[in-house]
Amino acid sequence: MKVLFEKQGKEIFASRDFKRKGLGFWKKAKHSNAGLRAVLERRFGTTTIGELKHRVLIPSVNYTTGKGQFFKTPHHPTFERDYQMTLVDVALATSAAPVYFPSVRNDRGVFVDGGLVGNAPGLFGLHEIRTFLAPDRNARVRVLAIGTMTVGATVSGG
């Protein structure tokens, strides 16, 4: 994923049209998600969560219900819906960060950025492991977190 963003970042975060520049952040997201969608479709096609080799939990917020939504592989008997969703739809839902990308609508509601459900959404994955996947043992875990800050935007302490 890191290489995907590094090599195709200019397509994902394409130049803004006049409306997006003129309206600033008041009425429209800074970027369209068309570039992101195109990159994701080329990379993942119609692959669904159920086809993944490894178990995943991808956070988003269902803006329609006001609740956190955690898209998951079917790694527990009660997880019956998410496996049918395409990776493209899930990625667009979790990346719809207000101001940066527009919200995403699908047959389950309107979705926005997974980071809004918690300021460290990777911790939900750790909870999932401890609760469902490996409650009685230590597991090796990798968490991928993609932020929106740039190197020049950090604040130094002091």
Automatic annotation (TrEMBL):
Highest taxon of source: Bacteria
Q: Which residues form the PNPLA domain?
A: 1-126
Looking up SUPFAM superfamilies in the UniProt record yields: FabD/lysophospholipase-like (SSF52151)
- InterPro entries associated with the record: Acyl_Trfase/lysoPLipase, PNPLA_dom, Teg/CotR/CapV-like
One Pfam family in the UniProt entry? Patatin
The alphabetized UniProt keywords are: Lipid metabolism
Q: GO biological process: what's one of them? A: lipid metabolic process
Q: Sorted alphabetically, which NCBIfam families does this protein's record hold? A: CBASS_lipase (NF041079)
* Protein's name in the database: Patatin
Record the organism.
Answer: Pseudomonas amygdali pv. mori str. 301020
